[in-house]
Amino acid sequence: MEVTAGVGGQEAMLFTSEIFDMYQRYAAYKKWKFEILEYFPSEIGGLRHAVASIAGLEAYKYMKFEGGVHRVQRVPKTEKQGRIHTSTMTVAILPQPTPMKLQINPKDLRIETKRATGAGGQHVNTTDSAVRIVHIPTGIVSECQQERSQIRNKEKAMQMLSAKLYKAKLEEETKKRNSVRKIQIGTKGRSEKIRTYNFPQDRITDHRISRSVHHIECFMLGEEKLDEMIQTLREYADYESLMEIISENEKKNLS
């Protein structure tokens, strides 16, 4: 999972931090393993960008519905006039491929090491522990400096690179199939908002299924309310897939 602050400056970064925490709590609620791979905080406690690995029973089948643009409407803590601001953040969910599904030729990789930067105690800037891997044929880059160990950082960077390459491969296959489903859950890009969190009205609206629920604080605990929303999205996606199969069968019968 990758989260990135969008439009809205510091407020967008604060919202990104809240969404990231919500998914960390959701992983605990579902008894999944949640491991932070990258974390770049902002000056006032927000989050610019972060990457986490989520592992557990059906983790991707649930989390893929969270990929897209999340929009927040509220009065920011930094706002003195009491005006409501609209900010955004994006979530990208990349399935972690098995070695069987994706093979990377070591000759296609350029691995660089450098000094870690930022907060992190005495080891920062004393050893070349940060690792950057470039996949030469595609230009896709992966970096990790979360760990003290260069070996561990290399493992995590490879894990992220594999996920990015697998996503690129999936997107290419999806384009070839040219699916006509209205709700392309899990493969949807970042261009369209999937959910709005309206704080003044205490309402969350998922635009893909036109469903609204109240009690934002409960929803953002990452427990039952979020789980119910994702379950509804799963059911809707199953229904859409079934309709697509029926439609394709009807076309075959007509031809």
Quick recap:
This protein is globular.
Please bin the fraction of helical residues: 25-40%
- Sum up the overall morphology in one term: globular
Euclidean distance between termini CA atoms: 43 Å
Largest sheet: 8 strands, mixed
- Return the string of H and E elements: EHEEHEEEEEHEEEHH
Structural class: alpha+beta
Can you list the strand order of the major beta sheet?
2-3-1-5-4-9-10-11
| Mean model confidence by pLDDT | 85
Please give the number of β-strands.
11
Itemize the secondary structure elements and their pairings.
Layout: E1 2-5, H1 9-29, E2 33-41, E3 47-55, H2 59-63, E4 68-74, E5 85-92, E6 109-114, E7 130-135, E8 140-144, H3 150-177, E9 193-198, E10 203-206, E11 211-214, H4 216-219, H5 224-254
Parallel strand pairs: 4-9
Antiparallel strand pairs: 1-3, 1-5, 2-3, 4-5, 6-7, 7-8, 9-10, 10-11
Detailed description of the structure:
An 8-stranded mixed sheet has the order 2-3-1-5-4-9-10-11. It has a 3-stranded antiparallel sheet with strand order 6-7-8. The protein is globular, with a radius of gyration of 20 Å. About 7% of the residues have low confidence. It is an alpha+beta fold and 255 residues long.
